[in-house]
Specification:
Blueprint lengths: L13 H22 L6 H7 L4 H7 L3 H26 L5 H18 L1 H10 L5 H27 L8 H17 L1 H7 L2 H16 L5 H11 L2
Helix pairs in contact: 1-2, 1-4, 4-5, 4-6, 4-7, 5-7, 5-8, 5-10, 5-11, 6-8, 7-8, 8-9
Length: 223
C-alpha cells in the first residue's frame, strides 16, 4: 500500500488552516477549470485568492497539493452526500430508491459540471497515492448503487447478472451529462435526460412480472 498523500502547512491552528484552505480551494478551482492545470502558475492562483504567493505557500506546499484538495474535496463530499441520501431511502422499495439516487447523482454533476470535467482531465497529474484517495471516494459512490441493486435482486424487483457493472453504467451516464454537455444539451434538457436514462435503466433491469410496479413507481417519482 502506498504512503498516504499529505499536504504541508506551517500553521498549528487547525481551524485557521481549514478556513484558509477552503477559501483557496474555492478561488483556485475557478482558475484551474478556466486555464487548465499545466497553464496555471502559483502567482495567478495567489492573485485569485487575494493573497501573496508567500501566504499561499503557508497553507499549500505546491500546486499539486492544491489540485489534490480540489478534486478530493469534491469527490469525498459527493460520496458522503450519496451515502446520506441512500440512508434516507433505506425503507423505500429498491426501484423507487434507485430512481431517487440516480436523480441525486445526476443533479450533482449538473450543478458541478466544470469540476467533473476538470477531475477527469487532471487527476492524471497527481501521484499514485493521491489518485488512490480520490478513487476510494469514487468507489464509495459505486458501492451505494451496487448495494441497492443487490437489494433489488434479493427482493425480486431486479434481474441483474453483474450489479457492479450496472453500478458503473449508472455512474458513467451521470458523468456523461458533464463530459458531453456540448452535445447533450443541444438535444435534451437535464430533466429529460435524467428521465430517459432512468427509464431505460429500469426497463433493462426490472423483472418482467414486476413491470407494472416499476411503471407505477416511476410515475410517482416524477410527480
Amino acid at each position: 500500500m502506498s504512503e498516504e498523500f499529505t499536504i504541508r502547512t506551517f500553521s498549528s491552528d487547525e481551524a485557521l488552516v481549514k478556513e484558509r484552505r477552503n477559501h483557496i480551494v474555492r478561488c483556485s478551482t475557478k482558475v484551474f477549470t478556466k486555464k487548465g492545470y499545466d497553464r496555471t502558475n502559483m502567482r495567478e492562483l495567489a492573485k485569485a485568492c487575494e493573497m501573496s504567493a508567500g501566504a499561499l505557500y503557508h497553507y499549500f506546499g505546491s500546486k499539486e497539493e492544491m489540485l489534490y484538495s480540489i478534486i478530493n474535496s469534491a469527490t469525498s463530499q459527493q460520496a458522503g452526500s450519496m451515502e446520506d441520501y441512500a440512508n434516507e431511502l433505506a425503507t423505500a422499495s429498491p426501484t423507487l430508491a434507485l430512481v431517487g439516487l440516480m436523480r441525486k447523482f445526476y443533479e450533482w454533476h449538473d450543478d458541478n459540471q466544470d469540476i467533473t470535467l476538470f477531475a477527469y482531465q487532471e487527476t492524471k497529474n497527481l501521484p499514485g497515492n493521491a489518485q488512490e484517495s480520490i478513487f476510494d471516494s469514487e468507489a464509495r459512490i459505486l458501492t451505494v448503487f451496487e448495494k441497492l441493486l443487490i437489494k433489488g435482486m434479493e427482493e425480486g424487483e431486479f434481474n441483474i447478472d453483474d450489479p457492479r457493472l450496472i453500478a458503473h453504467d449508472i455512474v458513467v451516464l451521470g458523468h456523461a451529462w458533464a463530459l458531453r454537455r456540448w452535445h447533450l444539451r443541444k438535444h435534451w434538457t437535464f430533466k429529460t435526460y435524467v428521465k430517459k436514462q432512468t427509464d431505460a435503466m429500469l426497463r433493462a433491469i426490472t423483472i418482467d412480472n414486476n413491470t407494472d410496479v416499476a411503471n407505477k413507481q416511476r410515475k410517482e417519482s416524477s410527480k
